[in-house]
Please model this.
Amino acid sequence: MWNLSFNPPEIIDATILTRLPDHFRQAQRTAWSDANKPGQMLDSFLEGPSFDRDGNLWVTDIPNGRIFRIDSALNWTLAAQYDGWPNGSAFHRDGSLWIADYRRGILRLEPGASTPEALLPHRNSESFKGINDLTFDAHGACLFTDQGQTGMQDPTGHVYRLGTDGRLEALIRNAPSPNGLALNADGSALYLAVTRANAIWRAPLPASGGANKVGQFQTFFGTSGPDGLAVDINNGVAVGHASLRGAFLLNVHGEITHYVRSPVGATLTNLAYRPGTNELIMVESQTGTLLTARLPHEGLPLYSHA
Model:
């Protein structure tokens, strides 16, 4: 059942915005591709779209440890390359780019720098399972997912909150593959993509701390599951799905109101609203393509731009 009206979602056809230029592509096997895409030769696997205050779009390339900047004229620049697997990213208000790196934890790339520095490489001297994505709340706390290879066989993925005072709090400890995450407009609830359970969870965040009454908000199907999330000013949740050839828009009740159809590939992972607009930017990771579509409402203001 899509929604209580029993009508199919409205279909929005995405268009291609830009793609990774050929001179940045060299198909090869890497340790990441052997583990996550066995038998495949990959020239890239893009994720982590985020916007800086100058309007540039930044994306990560996991297997090759690269971070790209794309300007308003759609020119691509290799901003950083290092020994890591960068996934989700988000800009801090101070202009630095925070990176969820699967191998190295939370990293920070300062403006003008070409190599990120370690910000939170481990927890109490113990390595993370494999950090996937991050976001900021209105106060500057960083929420991030520790996914690793968890799944239905091992539901021990974590969601953490790193406070501005450096205190690290585990909000969720039992997610089978926590991935993308986003907050609602007033920060009172966290939406979490639980990829290998093919579900979106909703976690109320009480003022007293922690998370409580966590429940399933929507469920999907497919060989993979929901990945990146983005929220609009009406608390609609855009969901990138990594095997269903597009993105879905959920309303505040969890009903699917729109389906954004990709013109290429089937692996639509991360997404982000262009600040101050209703333009949703989506990453089709397998083909290294960025897509665009207009959704009904403007995206929530970003912490970095406030």
About this structure: The helical segments are 31-36. Residues 19-227 form a domain with the Neuraminidase fold (CATH 2.120.10.30). The radius of gyration is 18 Å.
